[in-house]
Each structure stands twice: as structure tokens, then as C-alpha cells.
Design goal:
The protein has about 240 residues and is mostly helical. The chain is built from 14 helices and no strands.
Length: about 240
């Protein structure tokens, strides 16, 4: 406890988030902290990483070294990017190479995502519990397997979104309120990355009020000023995009 507090990590918050930390030996905890800092992580970064992934401090250095080796050699992460990758997804450091990282890497490669080093946050995800269910959901709402895979290959962030909290409400709005066709989602899967309440609904309602129908990218990707400028332009023109 005293050691962790000396490096700025609150012990009580740590054990409340991950109780097994309390049984870790002080020697292992110190070795883990020293190893992570030796890899170039700053004290604030270390505190943030441990806060987001307290399991790290219940791990041994012998468990962490293979993760760095895997990221550099198999996932093809550049050495200069390793800190950014870990800071973005600290859970990678507490993931088993054999049971989680490597199987997920192989799955992503098998569906055509070749540059996995650009999507390393996905490597700590379970293939069976997270990745496959997203593809199956896209099939459930009407896409072919080939189209579903094409969508996640084009926009791998789809794997990160909740089915209940993201896919379902946004798809229901897309079909019921917007009355659009599946082919638009196939071409623009980024639709699911936009806020339903703050972007999709208000912009769609503006288009309905003005009698204009924009393609999804035009409706959602433009900033607020560009969107309204285009909307006014096509209203004056008296035609859709």
C-alpha cells in the first residue's frame, strides 16, 4: 500500500476496483511498476493505466513481456506507437497472448482486416462474446454474411458498439423514422458512430422540415455550419441532393 501510494496510485480505489490486487506480493507489484515505467510511460500515464486496468498490478512481469512482444512482432505495432496503443487500451497489458490476443488477431485477419496495427484496441476483445455477435446482429437485420463482414472490414469500430445501446435504437430510427434502405448502411456503416440524439435525429428532422433528402454522409459528416448551408442551398434549388 505504501509503495503504490508513493508512486501516486490510490490503494483503496485500486482494491475496490479489483480486489485480487490485495493478494499480489509487493515484490511483483514493484517489478511490474518498474517494468512499465522502463518502457517509457510517465507517472501520470502509469496512474491512468492502473486506474483503467487494475488487473495489471496483479500480473507479473513474465505475463506482461509477451504482450509487448506480441504487439511489436505479430500485430506489427511500430515501437514509436507502443505507448499510444497501450494508453488507448490499457486492458491489452492484462490480456493473455495465447487465449485472447492471438486468436483475436487471427480472426480479424481472417475477415480481411489486414492492418490490425491500426485497430489494436480490438485485440483485447473476445471473438466469441463480442466480435461474432456484432456480425450476427447485422445478419439478423437483413444483411448477408458477406455484406456484414464487408461493413466491419470497412469500419472495424462497429465491433466496439453495444448492440442494445447503439445498434438497436439507431437501426430502429433508420428504418421507422427515416425510412431508408439497407444499402445505405452497407455503404456508410459509420452511421452507427454518430449520436442518435445529438446528430442523427436533429439533422434528419431538419431535412424533413425542409423537404430535402441528403445521403447519409452528407447529412451526418459535415459540421453544423456546412450542413445548414447545404440545406439552405438545396431548399432554394428546390431539389434533393
Amino acid at each position: 500500500m505504501l509503495y503504490l501510494e508513493s508512486v501516486g496510485i490510490d490503494f483503496l480505489s485500486l482494491i475496490s476496483a479489483h480486489p485480487p490486487v490485495v493478494s499480489a506480493s509487493s515484490a511483483d507489484v514493484k517489478s511490474t511498476v518498474e517494468f512499465v515505467t522502463s518502457m517509457g510511460f510517465t507517472a501520470p500515464e502509469l496512474r491512468r493505466i492502473c486506474g483503467m486496468c487494475p488487473q495489471l498490478l496483479a500480473s507479473k512481469v513474465s505475463d506482461i513481456v509477451p504482450v509487448f512482444t506480441f504487439l511489436l512482432r505479430e500485430a506489427r505495432v511500430e515501437g514509436s506507437d507502443i505507448r499510444r496503443v497501450i494508453n488507448r487500451r490499457p486492458r491489452l497489458l492484462a490480456s493473455s497472448v495465447d487465449r485472447r490476443l492471438r486468436p483475436t488477431l487471427y480472426f480479424l485477419q481472417s475477415i480481411g482486416i489486414s492492418e490490425v496495427n491500426r485497430h489494436t484496441s480490438l485485440l483485447s476483445c473476445s471473438v466469441e462474446e463480442k466480435l461474432i455477435p456484432r456480425i450476427e446482429y447485422l445478419e439478423k437485420i437483413g444483411f448477408s454474411r458477406r455484406d456484414a463482414v464487408s461493413m466491419v472490414r470497412r469500419f472495424p469500430q462497429l465491433f466496439c458498439y453495444s448492440i442494445k445501446g447503439n445498434f438497436e435504437p439507431k437501426f430502429d430510427y433508420f428504418v421507422v423514422e427515416m425510412g431508408r434502405e439497407l444499402k445505405e448502411l452497407k455503404e456508410f456503416p459509420q452511421y452507427f458512430s454518430f449520436s442518435l440524439e445529438n446528430r442523427i435525429k436533429p439533422r434528419h428532422q431538419c431535412c424533413v422540415e425542409k423537404g430535402v433528402c441528403f445521403p447519409l454522409p452528407v447529412m451526418l459528416k459535415t459540421n453544423e455550419a456546412e450542413f445548414h448551408d447545404r440545406l439552405e442551398f438545396f431548399c432554394r434549388l428546390g431539389t434533393d441532393f
